[in-house]
């Protein structure tokens, strides 16, 4: 499950709050996965994915502006990682969601958990350690 913990704090308040929001969206996706009251989760899955995509665009823009403001030397490689995340989210095959909604949602949740945790703990920490 995607759950926020203080280990993810990087020390830039605005970015930390945004990271926490991404975890919140991921948590709602997980709650949707575990919710057995919906017979058809398609619309809810699309809704969560759209929110994730829109918020990621906002967050990445904000983080990239911060990186430029501090003249972060690894800006371009960092931006490529953001772009790859957005590509993955943009490449969602909406037909596959309907084939097995829970399996597809689980694969998205796993991707978000792994990418977000790895990115924050390894890459975002780099620009605050300098």
TrEMBL record:
GO molecular function: metal ion binding
This protein's record includes keyword DNA repair: no
Domain of life from the UniProt record: Bacteria
Pfam families: Hemerythrin
Stretches assigned to the Hemerythrin-like domain: 11-127
Keywords noted in UniProt: Iron, Metal-binding
Keyword Iron attached: yes
Family: Belongs to the hemerythrin family.
Name of the protein described by the UniProt record: Putative bacteriohemerythrin
Protein species of origin: Clostridium cylindrosporum DSM 605
């Amino acid at each position: 499950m995607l759950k926020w913990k203080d280990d993810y704090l990087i020390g830039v308040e605005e970015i930390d709050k945004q990271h926490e929001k991404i975890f919140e969206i991921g948590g709602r996706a997980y709650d949707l996965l575990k919710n057995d009251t919906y017979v058809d989760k398609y619309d809810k899955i699309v809704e969560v994915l759209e929110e994730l995509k829109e918020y990621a665009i906002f967050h990445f823009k904000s983080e990239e502006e911060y990186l430029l403001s501090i003249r972060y030397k690894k800006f371009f490689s960092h931006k490529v990682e953001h772009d790859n995340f957005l590509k993955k989210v943009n490449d969602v095959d909406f037909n596959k969601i309907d084939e097995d909604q829970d399996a597809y949602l689980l694969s998205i949740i796993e991707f978000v958990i792994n990418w977000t945790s790895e990115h924050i703990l390894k890459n975002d920490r780099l620009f605050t350690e300098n």
